[in-house]
Amino acid sequence: MRELIAERLKGVTAKPLFTAGKMTAAQKIGIALLVAAVIVAPILFQGFGQLFMIRIIAVIGLYIILALGLNIVVGYAGLLDFGRIAFYAVGAYVAMWVGIPLAGLLGETLEGWSYFLVLPIGGLVACVVGLLLGLPVMRLRGDYLAIVTLGFGEIVRICLTNNIFGITNGAAGLPGSGDSLAAPAGLAWLRRNVHFTIGNNFEFTFTSNIYWYFVIFALVALSILVIRNLDNSRLGRSWAAVREDEVAAQAMGVNTTVAKLYAFVIGAFFGGIAGVTFSYFQAFVSPESFTFLESVLVLAIVVIGGMGSIPGVIFGALAIQGIPEFIRGFASAGWFGNLSAETVSAISNYRYLVFGALMVFMMAVRPQGLIPQTRRARELLGEYDAIDGHELDAREPGDRANSTRGRA
Amino acid sequence: MTSHLMEARGATIRFGGLTAVDNVDMYVDVGEIVALIGPNGAGKTTYFNMLTGIYKPTEGDILFNGASIVGKAPHVIARQGISRTFQNIRLFPALSAIENVMIGRHMRTKTGALGALFKTPPARKEEQQIQADAEKWLAFVGLSGVANELASSLPYGAQRRLEIARALATEPQLICLDEPAAGMNPQETAELNLLVGRIRDAGVTVFLIEHDMKVVMEIAERIYVLDFGKLIAQGTPREVQNNPAVIEAYLGLGADALMAKHLDEGGDDA
Ligand SMILES: Nc1ncnc2c1ncn2[C@@H]1O[C@H](COP(=O)(O)OP(=O)(O)O)[C@@H](O)[C@H]1O
Ligand SMILES: [Mg+2]
């Protein structure tokens, strides 16, 4: 058993704590290349006329933000959440409810800034919803939270579909006829002024998709920067404590309910801002974007990528949201010959089957995920063995009879 | 009003038909080293669990600094100044030794979510202070050299000392040690006894559980003896050692037989 664990821990070197946040030169170069690729990619795709790729990558970006938020809940605090997409929905609908009237208030010259004002509003509304949902359930055991969040996700979707309070426009979605979200500030100018051609095959024009692509990846970068700070922080440590031993955490004065609530609420914020951006990016929202399967997808990104690990989340989003979409995109762009629309959608729906199998496989072979966080990997691979009881210091009442005392 | 640091009045807890702690009165004063001893299953750990809020007494009251702590959550009691270690070591196994101690600083520090997310200057400063304090407590228990080792990879004796460092990092008024010497060899036990003295000298009152009587005789100033949940004796080590009820509880033999055994072993300090 010990050897097995040692075997699995290979490649999971225990970094000393205070260097954990510092990067090696190779890592820095890797990140610089990644950033460069993210910036250049849409320009190339636009120039060469592969427009669908820009949308696909932008959506991957949204899923990265969603999964980064869920990663705080699942990876850092160790809570299971099956209803993550509800916060995405909250952000998306808040964008419509607040963004449209706000643009009207701001008037023609300022309406372009409505998105940037709605963004934090959507995040904060999601936080409040997270708080209201979390308050009653955080005291309960983990499995209950999973069930409650699952139910919550479904309730939100059903409310949206049934046009609750008459404000969601039911399955038809928002905005209703005649309304629309304001184009973001600067887009008109960029559209007019940024276009160029290189040779005969490359023609670049700035589009709304490119605008949102860059907004989304700016949000991804900002999210990563702040979430990284949690790792070696007072709050991040309290989550590790709660995850590893709740009784000991309480004995150290950690209010475990509050610690979990923090994770839940901060996680909800990222769901909310992703939702707002999604709404503006699509210019349209409807309940079908917020199904249970989407929640599962986000959870799969976190679990398969590596719980608690930011690179893991990025990689997970690429693999789970990206690959099927790329395949579908290429298929509908005719790269694989002339496929019918049904075949194309069947291909992309088979992903759930593949993910199911992949999840089972991962849990069996690599429970720490593809790119695990060191600490999480240690927990999942059961270094616990070295320390005895995780039960309360209690034995069965009958135990006393067996105790080693020589009472006659 | 009471002048005791901790005082239990008629503390009782039942689990179904079993009365694990039965109508216990005891107190600990500031600056003392008090031991709670008794055979396995006597209810010592259960008493600690009541004192630290893990269990709620079925009857009776427990006062700390004159105010009842019954029904308060464990983290609230910890914040009021009672810290503890566990008989079955409960470190955070996948964290390093220093991180374990840093969690002990949690309740005495205050960086919130925004400070953590944005690494504000006050948050950075506090983080450095947390680290410095944790290093200090690691040094106090003699574990400076293994600060970055995983808690679970430390030898058993070191794990016990790490738990003490983590408890001390919470700046308790009262530290409750549940069988700190269990599993230690004689040399480690001797070192532990010195450590307990230094903890008291640092201004922390010590309340410790031990089931091996010999270990506490040297360090405890007062001793309570539990048996089957009942307090059967209390007093100085000398008084307790010679108490027939204690001898009976420990050996299940008549006192005469005990004397005979005692003499056999060549120990005669009566
Ligand atoms: N949560 C519980 N449920 C039922 N019985 C318990 C519980 N906790 C402790 N006990 C019982 O209380 C008695 C005292 O146990 P304990 O306090 O652990 O003894 P010790 O003096 O060895 O520390 C034992 O008989 C034990 O089985
Ligand atoms: Mg015990």
Explain how this protein is built.
Chain A is an all-alpha fold. Chain A has one domain (2-13, 24-395). Chain A contains 17 helices and 2 strands. Chain A has helices spanning 2-9, 25-47, 51-76, 85-110, 114-137, 142-161, 187-193, 208-230, 234-244, 246-251, 256-282, 292-305, 310-332, 341-349, 351-365, 374-380, 399-402, and strands at residues 195-198, 202-205. A two-stranded antiparallel sheet of chain A has the order 1-2. In chain A, strand 1 (195-198) and strand 2 form a beta hairpin. In chain A, helix 3 packs parallel to helix 8 and helix 12 (292-305) packs parallel to helix 15. Chain A starts with a helix and ends in a 6-residue tail after the last helix. Mean pLDDT of chain A is 80; it is low at 1-20 and 383-408. Chain B has 270 residues and is α/β, with parallel strands linked by helices. Chain B folds into 2 domains: 1-81 and 172-270, Rossmann fold (3-Layer(aba) Sandwich); 94-171, no CATH class. In chain B, strands 6-7-8-3-9-10 form a 6-stranded mixed β-sheet, with helices on both faces. A 4-stranded antiparallel β-sheet of chain B has the order 2-1-4-5, with helices on one face. In chain B, strand 7, helix 7 and strand 8 form a beta-alpha-beta unit. The longest helix of chain B has 20 residues, at 121-140. The relative contact order of chain B is 0.16. Classes of the chains: A mainly alpha (408), B alpha/beta (270). The interface between A and B is large, with 57 and 68 residues. Adenosine-5'-diphosphate sits between chains B (15, 18, 20, 38, 40-46) and A (393-397, 399-400).
Mean pLDDT across the residues of chain B is 89
The number of helical segments of chain B is 11
Number of discrete domains of chain A: 1
Shape of chain B: globular
Largest interface: A-B, 57 and 68 residues
Q: How many strand elements of chain A?
A: 2
Strand order across the largest sheet of chain B: 6-7-8-3-9-10
Number of helices of chain A: 17
Q: Mind describing the biggest β-sheet of chain B?
A: 6 strands, mixed
